[in-house]
Amino acid sequence: MFQGFSQETVDFMWGIRFNNERSWFEAHKSDYQTYFLNPMKELGRQVQGELLDRFPENGLNLKISRIYRDARRLFGRGPYKDHLWLSLSRFGNEASGGNHPVLWFELAPDGWSYGMGFWAAQPIIMEKHRARIDRDPKPLLKLHNRLEKQSEFALEGPEYSRKKPCSESRLAGWYNKKSLDLGHSEALTEAVYQQALADRLAEGFTFLMPYYDYFSTLWADPDPRAPV
Q: Please, which residues bridge with residue 186 across strands?
């Protein structure tokens, strides 16, 4: 069972940020496994189990990120990440391709966040998103109104500099995203050191599940670019 992260977790994250090299990591690998990776796995399994109890039809798959960076994409950075994340998706590894959303939690040296959204949505997915709004804005409008009544999550994501006209003005913020997520971010508060973090994530993801269900079906929509 998840017991909370610890000061040792935070110390390791700062350590790898300022000592991002193989020799330092190898000397502190047991700290990584004990204080960072293992608690992240415990948190993911506990939250996954709670969500499967609440939504057994969803079959959510758990994925824990690797600390090793892709050697082909270092771009002058060290070989290790100073943060880890977990994701839950019914699509498994396919979600990383930008066609499917995920539920996620991320822990970094200076903060943590969680939410629902795309890592980086494929352009065709966002075209399908806009086409769905054009066809029938009511389902998303209902979700929009529900989001407006709470304060935990906010609509985030890069927007087009040239605004696209949306027939439903209340959905313009959704319509003009290049990719999107509903996220919550905090500094490293006491929440990350407590067992109750697992319950908070489970409750938050439960709130987000209707949004996850809505966006996880976009990939199956007709291609709006196809000739009629």
A: 112
